[in-house]
Amino acid sequence: LWEWQYKTEDYLDLLLWREGPPTNRTCSVCTKDGVYRCHSCMGEPLFCTHCCRMVYSHMPFYRISQWTGGFFEDTSLTKISLEIHLSHQGKPCPQWVPLVNDPQMTMVVDASGLHSLMIRFCQCTDTLSPDMQLFRTGLFPVSQPKNE
Questions:
Q1: CA 102, 86, 83, 71 torsion-angle sign
Q2: What DSSP character marks residue 33?
Q3: How many helices (H) and strands (E) would you count in the chain?
Q4: What is the pLDDT of residues 49-70, one digit of tens each?
Q5: Residue 140: exposed, middle, or buried by beta-carbon count in 10 A (0-12, 13-18, 19+)?
Q6: Number of C-beta neighbours around residue 87 at 10 A
């Protein structure tokens, strides 16, 4: 530990620097204002809302935070309106009808923790049942929908 003692101030300064936004707070994909930081990615890149949704549309378990003007506050991809579309390669189902096929908030347990996800099931006539759509995607339901 004595070897590291002379670096203590440098390390503390760097840790504090990482808590704030970079001087040039632009999205790492486009040139818009970067307000979301991904804590699951190497280097914790910044993203604007649109790019954050696009980049993580197939990675819903990544952890993000939002710049509030004073600090980065933990948030979720669901809070920035990320929806998981089952079937159709992650794109919206062509049979989707607004208000009839609204997404279902689903709690998912992953190695990184608990995640509330907005899931839209495929509505095509020849599609699998919702539980089978989840299985095909690699999500394993722990309960069955209640029959009403």
A1: positive
A2: B
A3: 4, 7
A4: 999 999 998 899 999 999 998 8
A5: exposed
A6: 18
